[in-house]
Structures
1.
Amino acid sequence: MGSIAKLAGQTFWYGLSSILGRFINYLLTPLLTAIYASGKYGDISVLFALAAFLNIVFTLGMETTYFRFSRDADEKRVFDSGQTLLTATTLLLCAGLLAPLPAIAGRLRLGEHPEYLRWVLWIVALDTLAVLPFARLRHLGRPRAFAAVKILGILVNVALVVFFLVLCKGDHERGRTTLWAALYDPRIDIGYVFLANLAASAVTLLLLHRQLLAWRPRVDLRLLGRMLAYAAPLLVVGFGGMVNETIDRFMILERFPGTVEAAKSANGIYSANYKLAVLIVLFIQAFRMGAEPFFFRQSAENSDAPVVYARVMKFFVIACCLGFLSVVLFLDVWKHFMGIRRHPEYLQGLMVVPVLLLAKICLGVYYNLSIWYKVTDRTLTGAWITLGGALVTVAVNYLLVPVIGYWACAWATLLCYGFMMVVSYRLGQRHYRVPYAWKKLTAYVVISVLLFLAHRAFRQASPGMVWTHAGGVAAMLLFLALVARIERRELAAMRIPGFGKRRS
């Protein structure tokens, strides 16, 4: 239990940086959706989706590779070789992508603003150079430093967005002759979102100066060759994963029936509601940051590592179910995180949120399961699983977006991650058996869905806001009581207050 407690402690700090930081960043959603109608917000979401694709290509799977090889080789040599490689490839990729950017902008219906893509490219480049310094902080067990840098970078981003789009834009539109009004150029429009992000990425890199100063530009060719062989399938995994995460935005632009404006509006509506899955997404991200180095250490140091993995999975699923219920039972509250007063069209997509949350639970479970091919160096198998999921995503979106619009994107996401979860489990049990309590885990998810459906029926029968929230709280407490009863012995062994000792 001590190892799980240590993981929980590290996850807390990574979670603090991820959940608090991303939540602060998430507060931009109601601001941006209040300022921009769904069409403009759709453009923002497409550009950030492009950034996510580029990030996978630029980082070359080096983060996980660094953790894997730091286990067996000299950590400093691994860091120096990896950082040298990423610096060189980032410069080459930036040089190669500058020329085709105008054509790409035209394809994304942003032909008048190729500078947006140029700014996105610089953001990705700076973020790539920060990947291994951040990973090194995690490897060295410095989650507090990691959290501080992450949060400060996000605060800079949010502060600059508010400065440009509230203070400067507000003064400009009111016709005031202030310095702030003079700083605002309406032709840049949504570009201020990316300029703020670019400045934040630069500040983040500066805050990582100690790790960067420790870097010595050198390459151990033999080591780097092994690292690239390990990373190549991870690059495919990452790219396939990003297809699963973001291809739906591009599919809506290409396949949505009607005008370009209608497609952009649908993209904005879907993307804004996608943000409401933030609780589970942030928890999964925080968990991954703590779990990846933890899992590798367990595989090297603990002969009972599979038992530890099974326990981690159980409490992970319970936490995800709580996150699911925290959102779906209180959608009437969460919907106000979109700018529905000025732009009520965002409410049209609210009911895709439960489907997306279930998809994210499947994704989180898959991340837990994927440890089997990482610790056994079968990353090529992970690549094939992810490519299979990407095929499901593309096929469902391509066929159904013209029929049911952005609902196809939500169902494609669930089917994709469900497919990857099941396939990874079946293959993993053949090559690296872990005693997962699947019946219990499935029961927790099913109970959560049933509680949501019961609450939805109760809400329709008793539409009063007070009763609706009271029913949501009651459903949450019922789930917690059920978990406490089922897991009482293990919680007692972990010395959780209120659960006492085991009964004989």
Note: Residues 211 and 498 are 43 Å apart (CA to CA).
2.
Amino acid sequence: MACLTALTCKVSAQTSLDDMSKKAGDVPYVLEIVAEAAHQAGLTRYLVSVRLPAGDRVSSIYGTNVHPMTLRAPGGVFNSPYNGSWSASGMNPKFFEIMPDMGDDTFATVGITTGAKISGVEGAEDPTMVQDPGAPWDAFFTEDGETDLAIDTHTGGAWFVLRTAANGEPVDGKVLLMQVTTAGTLSGAINVQIFPGSEDYDQLRCRFEFDGTGEFPGAIVE
């Protein structure tokens, strides 16, 4: 069910969340889920993005046992054999004309839909993945038909770019986090680390829970 309520996240500096909210004010962060028709009949591409103010940057999408990250696609996800990566780094639009199904691939990203070198974004970098060897999660972005992703161990896991990466900056007010293509619905919970543009505070972590398409509010977590 879509939620169209705007999010107000209260962020903290070196003291407490309440103290920082008095300093920096209310900062809007919203998870946006947009559905579009896939090239393949019967499939839907879900574009998962976070909306954030100009000057802020997305750094990491992560999960831990304290704040698990989960994705649920009961219809199974589509993963193209032509993307040899778990991320958008293996996506090349030059191949879409002869392999159009490749455009439906399920992939993780930070702000780009291709490899960084061909993205056209100066200063972009491909995301790096870290995962618990005992509980890998990358199959959701590499194996066709996967239905669940869970990053929920003490070690945790993430994909991230450096703070200096240009693709962490919003374009048209948002940063793409992933594309998920499936025959059914998509739901889950996502944690995002953000570097705010203000010098009053360093970084914040926002958690979003969602079900279907729309705009979903989140909450600051420590």
Note: The helical segments are 17-24.
